[in-house]
Specification:
The complex is a heterodimer of chains A (136) and B (384). Chain A has one helix at 14-21, and strands at residues 26-29, 36-37, 53-56, 60-69, 83-90, 95-101, 111-116, 128-132. By secondary structure, chain A is mainly β. Chain A has one domain (14-132): Beta Barrel (OB fold (Dihydrolipoamide Acetyltransferase, E2P)). In chain B, helix 6 (161-175) packs across helix 9 (286-296). In chain B, a hairpin with a 2-residue loop joins strand 5 (197-199) and strand 6. Chain B is globular. The model of chain B has no long low-confidence stretch (mean pLDDT 97). The chains are: A mainly beta (136), B alpha/beta (384).
């Protein structure tokens, strides 16, 4: 039985995963051009200025795509099938991949709120998930 | 003006489940047969391009192959660009001979990923293309990543599961005419739609095969091509575009680099998509092919599915496509999978494909896609 492939934080991503463990979604923002970005990098991928700064993100976004996985990548995910994965466009712009929780049937355009799984593994990784918000 | 590079020899090994095969053995068999096809001796090869392997992975696969095959070419390198690798190797080989750096470049790939790995191991290895921190932890496979693309594209342009299924049925229809294909049993749209889900909306028959097999070709300088055995096929135009690696960072979920890659290749060849007689287009999944057909300009957005249902991709249709059966019905053995599209295009232009021949094919288009529609390479090939 293999374990799930938990992220191993590095210099670029440490701040992001520390935020998740504290229940806070963090994104980088460029000090030069103002672009928000994800995944984290040592530079701004829009204008190539160095050292983007971290900020707390709203945690709100919309589903831009989703899939229900029936054939898992490894035995570690077998007990979970079928499970739903979504790409969420955050209000700040960048796209995030998450597990969809809460059982509602996802549709593209649905508003979601990002939450976090309990911290797991040696690095205390709290994976982000999303819950579909009730239509107003 | 530079003289166009010429493809002077091609070969596929047998494909499918080949117990007793090895990765390097498949490389050597494909290479020997491609050289024989060209009428060249191994000692005449002065350039070698290889790809990658799952069963015999190595940091320096081109050196591993040259040592195994017993040649010491002046130039060798290995290229890793997933499904785009086959076309990129041809583009690179053409550049080498057109620059005068090589006379005969051997392009070779192969893997025994069906008999040499378990299916579970192959799926697990392939899923490693996902981002290690921001995709793989969520349990996505390559089909799941393409499922996400499919959902977004279908939502945007109105493609339906039937339209996707038409791509799989077309591949099988062609494969039934190809004695070498791995899957030759007829399938219907209803059967595709009844196959089990892998990652919604993609079902088992929306997905490519896992195969053993190898392929090779020889790309020669125009003056060197005069000495070879068969009528060569010219590399008229090449193009590439890479927009991202990971889906989470893709600029769009519905517009991809295949368009720009093809624009370059058509531009360099001085032709338009409408002039193409036969197309061999990367089809890792039904959605891959549908998006490429519409992005490259062979069909308008939303039109490829209905056209395929009406037979547009079959022999006699508007654009005979994947005449060997493609990755979904012929075979998919790693980088060789993308080379099969090239070897088929060359054979079509030589008029050697018998029951599946597109009559008088003069211009062929080949496209490779690596990653999650991340890396693209297009080729325009022409009869001389």
């Amino acid at each position: 039985m293999t374990d799930k492939p938990l992220p191993v934080p590095n210099a670029d991503t440490k701040e992001f995963w520390e935020g998740c463990a504290q229940g806070e979604l963090r994104l980088q923002r460029c000090r030069a051009c103002g672009a928000a970005q994800f995944p984290p990098r040592a530079l701004c991928a829009t204008c190539h200025a160095s050292s983007p700064v971290w900020e707390r993100a709203s945690g709100r976004g919309r589903i831009v795509s989703h899939t229900r996985v029936h054939r898992p990548p490894s035995p570690a995910f077998k007990a979970d099938v079928p499970y739903s994965v979504a790409l969420v466009a955050l209000e700040e712009g960048p796209r995030l991949m998450v597990t969809l929780r809460g059982g509602a049937e996802p549709r593209i355009g649905d508003a979601v709120r990002v939450g976090f799984d309990p911290p797991a593994g040696p690095d205390g990784i709290a994976l982000p998930h999303a819950i579909i918000l009730e239509a107003p | 003006m530079t003289q166009r590079a010429i493809i002077t020899g091609v070969a596929d090994t047998a494909v499918g489940d080949l117990p007793g095969s090895s990765c390097m053995g498949l490389h050597a068999e494909a290479a020997s047969r491609a050289l024989a096809d060209a009428g060249l001796k191994p000692s005449e090869v002065d350039g070698v391009l290889c790809a990658y392997s799952f069963t015999e992975p190595h940091l320096m696969l081109a050196s591993v192959f040259c040592e195994y095959f017993g040649i010491q070419p002046a130039y060798s390198a290995a290229i890793h660009a997933g499904g785009a690798t086959g076309c990129i190797m041809v583009m690179q080989a053409a550049a080498l001979v057109e620059a005068g750096l090589c006379r005969h470049v051997l392009v070779v790939a192969g893997d025994n990923r069906l008999s040499g790995l378990s299916r579970d191991k192959a799926v697990a290895t392939l899923s490693e293309v996902g981002h290690p921190q921001f995709e793989r932890p969520f349990g996505v496979t390559i089909p799941a990543l393409y499922g996400l693309v499919a959902q977004a594209y279908m939502h945007r342009y109105g493609a339906t599961p039937e339209h996707l299924a038409a791509m799989a049925v077309n591949s099988r229809t062609h494969a039934m005419r190809n004695p070498g294909a791995q899957m030759r049993k007829p399938i219907t749209v209803a059967e595709v739609l009844a196959s089990r889900f892998i990652a919604e909306p993609l079902r088992l028959l929306d997905c490519c095969l896992i195969s053993d097999g190898g392929a090779a070709l020889v790309v020669s300088a125009a003056d060197a091509a005069r000495d070879t055995a068969k009528r060569g096929v010219a590399v008229l135009g090449t193009g590439q575009k890479n927009t991202h690696e990971h889906l989470v960072a893709a600029p769009s979920l519905t517009e991809f680099g295949c368009r720009d890659s093809a624009v370059q290749a058509f531009g360099r060849a001085g032709i338009t998509a409408a002039e193409i007689d036969v197309a061999e287009i990367y089809d890792s999944f039904t959605i891959t092919l549908l998006i490429e057909l519409e992005s490259i300009g062979f069909f308008e957005k939303g039109e490829a599915g209905p056209a395929a249902l009406a037979g547009a991709l079959d022999l006699g249709g508007r654009l005979p496509c994947n005449t060997h059966g493609g990755l979904m019905s012929y075979a998919h053995s790693g980088a060789a999978g993308g080379l099969f599209h090239v070897t088929e295009a060359v054979r079509q232009l030589r008029g050697e494909t018998e029951a599946r021949q597109v009559p008088d094919a003069e211009l062929a288009f080949v496209h490779g896609d690596g990653g999650i529609l991340s890396a693209h390479c297009s080729l325009v090939l022409g009869r001389r």
